[in-house]
């Protein structure tokens, strides 16, 4: 059996050098760079390719100052060139499937594939819907428990918080893609969950029914005065089980 090379290849450099940066020097992030970062984020994998998030890029100084304050004035937020607020958006499923259907039609997919996709998307939306007062949760639970008697099967998220948890996974992957892309392109980042969610949601005009802020990412150029603490991780054997 051949053994994989264990030295760090150049392609992993951004993963190995990324740190959570606490203080940034003022730099301008041009629109082309902003677009590259946002493109990298949306190329992340997502459950059923549903991309259940919306990314708010805040760059204007006035808006940034307000958002930084709502991140409790934390230094990464206060000194960043841009703040990205990653929002799990469970109200986007219908529009997303319509957009994908439109893209499939324009790309010349055969009618049969379009019908298949439309049917699957409709079932998916039903499964990922809490229903009024969460009443679908019980129906879904009963249906899937019954199915489990005969079949190995997963369980869709039942409650509203389960659906947000589902959307959060895909949102977090987009965030990580953006942070690695920033590192590769000479910028630095700090992910943050230290923010006033209620006030920040209000500032962005979000609805609590469909939206939940997953994290805020401060983006900029690491301050020349900033010194990172040594990076610590649990040893591999505390983190990994190999079967
Ligand atoms: C979900 C999440 C939330 C975080 N929230 C904050 C935060 O509010 N403020 C902060 O300064 N750092 C925050 N961090 C950064 C972590 O403290 C940092 O990633 C960790 O200490 C490891 O350091 P490293 O990323 O430099 O390896 C957060 C990181 C994650 C993943």
Strand content: 5-15%
What integer is the average pLDDT?
94
Residue share in helix = 40-55%
Which ligands does the model contain, each kind named once? flavin mononucleotide
Largest sheet: 5 strands, antiparallel
| End-to-end distance | 18 Å
Outline type: globular
Number of strands: 5
Unreliable residue runs: none
Order of helices and strands: HEHEHHEHHHHEHEH
Secondary structure category: alpha+beta
Q: What's the tally of helices? A: 10
Radius of gyration, whole Å: 21 Å
Chain-wise SSE layout:
Layout: H1 13-17, E1 24-25, H2 31-42, E2 53-58, H3 61-70, H4 75-79, E3 82-89, H5 93-106, H6 111-127, H7 135-150, H8 160-184, E4 188-192, H9 197-204, E5 211-222, H10 236-239
Helix pairs in contact: 2-8, 5-6
The structure holds flavin mononucleotide (FMN).
Task: Please name the defining characteristics of this protein.
binds flavin mononucleotide; alpha+beta; 243 residues; five-stranded antiparallel sheet; 14% strand; 48% helix; globular
């Amino acid at each position: 059996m051949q053994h994989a090379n264990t030295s760090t290849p150049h392609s992993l450099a951004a993963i190995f050098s990324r740190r959570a940066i606490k203080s940034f020097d003022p730099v301008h992030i041009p629109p082309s760079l902003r677009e590259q970062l946002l493109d990298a984020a949306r190329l992340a994998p997502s459950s059923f390719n549903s991309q259940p998030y919306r990314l708010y890029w805040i760059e204007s100084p006035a808006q940034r100052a307000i958002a930084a304050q709502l991140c409790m004035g934390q230094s990464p937020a206060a000194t960043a060139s841009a703040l990205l607020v990653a929002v799990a958006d469970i109200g986007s499923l219908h529009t997303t499937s319509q957009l994908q259907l439109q893209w499939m039609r324009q790309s010349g997919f055969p009618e049969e594939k379009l019908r298949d996709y439309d049917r699957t998307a409709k079932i998916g939306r039903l499964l990922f819907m809490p229903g009024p007062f969460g009443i679908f949760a019980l129906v879904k639970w009963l249906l899937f428990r019954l199915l489990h008697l005969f079949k190995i099967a997963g369980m869709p998220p039942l409650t509203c918080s389960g659906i947000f948890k589902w959307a959060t996974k895909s949102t977090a992957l987009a965030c990580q893609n953006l942070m690695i892309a920033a590192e590769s392109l000479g910028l630095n980042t700090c992910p943050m969950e230290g923010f006033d969610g209620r006030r920040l949601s209000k500032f962005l005009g979000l609805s609590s029914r469909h939206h939940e802020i997953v994290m805020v990412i401060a983006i900029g150029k690491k301050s020349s005065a900033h010194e990172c603490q040594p990076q610590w991780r649990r040893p591999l054997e505390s983190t990994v089980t190999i079967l």
